[in-house]
Each structure stands twice: as C-alpha cells, then as structure tokens.
C-alpha cells in the first residue's frame, strides 16, 4: 500500500482512496471523516484498497459500505446477542418505574440488519432467516445503516390474538408468510451499542423505526398498574404479561429487571394418542391424550381438545399418524375410541390446575416442542 498525505495542505489534508469495489473509481476522503479511526490502515484494509494518495480538487462524499461504517466510528454488529429473559413471579410489580406488555405467544427472535441485509436468529442463536421471509424483507427496508431488534415472531388468529400453534402450522405448511414480528427492544442502532441505555430511551428510538403495520408491529406498553393490566389479560385468555423497568439497561440472561406473570400454568407433556373426530363435520381430530413422565413411567393426565384450529389439527394429526402404535404407552389405560401412538411427540399445554382425579383442568394445546 502506498500513501502520500500532506497535513499542511490548505484543504486540511484530503486523501484519495483507490479501491477495487466493483470497478469503482478513486474517491476522495476528507481526513476529518476518519478521526474516529485510530489507525488509517485499519480503514484502508477494511476497504481492500490498492492505493491511498493525496488528491487535488474539491472533496466529495465517500466512505461507502463497510468503509462508511468504519469511518463514522460504527461498531460492527455482533454475530448474536443472548436475549434478556424475564423472571417468573406470582404477581406483577408495583411502581411508576415499570411498564407492562402482553406476553406474546410465539418464537423469541432477534434480528440483525446491516445495509439492507437481514439475519433472523432464535433465542439460542440459530439462523431462521429463511423461515421468516416476509419479516426479513420488511426489516431490510428500514431506514437504518444497522440495527439489532429484539422481539417475538407469531401468527395472529381470527380474533387478532397471537397463536404459537398457528405459527407452527404456518411454518410447517405456509412458509412463514403470515408471520409477524412484535418488536419490543432496540439493542444496536447505526453503529452504536444501545444496551447500556435505559429501556425508556431504547423504546422511544424503536417506536421511530417501526411503522406499526404487518409484518412489523410495535409491542405496545401499558403504563398503568400491573395488577389491572394482568387482570384484563387473563380475562381475554392471554398467556400473561411481561413487566419491565424503564430505567434499566439490557442484560442478557435471566433478569429481575424483566418479570413475567402468567395467567395459566404451562408444562410439557407426552402425547400417547388421539381421539378421531366423530361429528357431522369431519375435523382432523377431536382431542389428544397426554401423559406426564414421572420416575421413569408415564402418568395419564387427560384429554386436550382446545387450542388448535383445523389447520393446526391437521398438522398434528399427520405427525401422530406417523407414530401410531397398536398399544397404549400407559399400562392398563382404556379410553373408548382412542387411537394410540408411540410416546415420541412432546407438546406444550396450558392448564389451570388439576381435577380431583388428577387430570388437567381447562387444558389448551399451545404447540409442539421441537
């Protein structure tokens, strides 16, 4: 690399970078634009230059692409940020320092946007960009140089509520076209790490980015009492709420700055069979039979017949038909008309306690555990 730089030049030290970028022509770069770069060669190497030399003439805007980010002092986006996870509590917190949001029923994701390119990652860091094409396309149109946004991907049911089961069915059969993102936090913006800033600032900046129409939606906050919001959430049969401290930074891992209060209990159960539909309208199935693993054995916990649409029920029926078994996995259990399966499929079930006989009360299918 050859470089000539005259600091005494009356134009303040103008540089010309000749770079091999798609056959690009030499571009002038005002030295003032690289004050944040500790070493000129750092910027040069990042842009794969051939020559840096002094140039005459009027300075023009340059520093495009990655070099643009470096010359502004932008921090590169991390490959993945472990999410902040709320701590489960029995009742919502009290105080003006807390805001409250709906606990969305879907997949927790973080999205990484840089110069229009988008990567969608799961809470464990897996790349699921291909599974959420409409979300990724919309994020690529945001008016930002770079950003990292935290949120929940879900599908809205006919009542406008989020449905994890519908999301799974959509990913299995529809290619993720109906999925939406409820964005609730901003971790990076235009080369700056925002995690140390209070939630109030992060939320305000996020609200300015999201246009609030599918597939990108802003998770709305409620600033009233958590108890009132929780009561309304439960009346509408939502999963629960998440409460967050407005004055706190973003911390990866389990945190007491974020608290979740659930309207229902959620647990994983093994499917051991299902009841075919017997009504006039032939639905894929009437209910599923579930069991809990206890000390190496299976204990029957009852039937679950709500929480899935016909579309979800068909996906579930196809999965169960593939693992049919001639006998029940729970010894001596007899249920008239039931078809049994191998205990290979695990599902999440919402319920509200147990009956006197030890079976699930008000049980509702939530989704398949992949």
From TrEMBL:
PROSITE patterns membership: DNA_LIGASE_A3
Enzyme class, broadest EC rank: ligase
Gene Ontology annotations of biological process type: DNA recombination; DNA repair
Recorded GO MF terms: ATP binding; DNA ligase (ATP) activity
Top-level division of the source organism's lineage: Bacteria
Protein EC: 6.5.1.1
InterPro entries xrefs: ATP-dep_DNA_ligase, DNA_ligase_ATP-dep_C, DNA_ligase_ATP-dep_cent, LigD_ligase_dom, NA-bd_OB-fold
Keyword Ligase on entry: yes
CDD domains membership: Adenylation_DNA_ligase_LigD_LigC (cd07906), OBF_DNA_ligase_LigD (cd07971)
ATP-dependent DNA ligase family profile domain boundaries: 181-262
Catalytic reactions of this protein: ATP + (deoxyribonucleotide)n-3'-hydroxyl + 5'-phospho-(deoxyribonucleotide)m = (deoxyribonucleotide)n+m + AMP + diphosphate
Signal peptide feature range: none
Keyword tags: Ligase
Gene3D superfamilies: 3.30.1490.70, DNA ligase/mRNA capping enzyme, Nucleic acid-binding proteins
Family to which the UniProt record says this protein belongs: Belongs to the ATP-dependent DNA ligase family.
Protein name per UniProt: DNA ligase (ATP)
Native source organism of the sequence: Methylocella silvestris
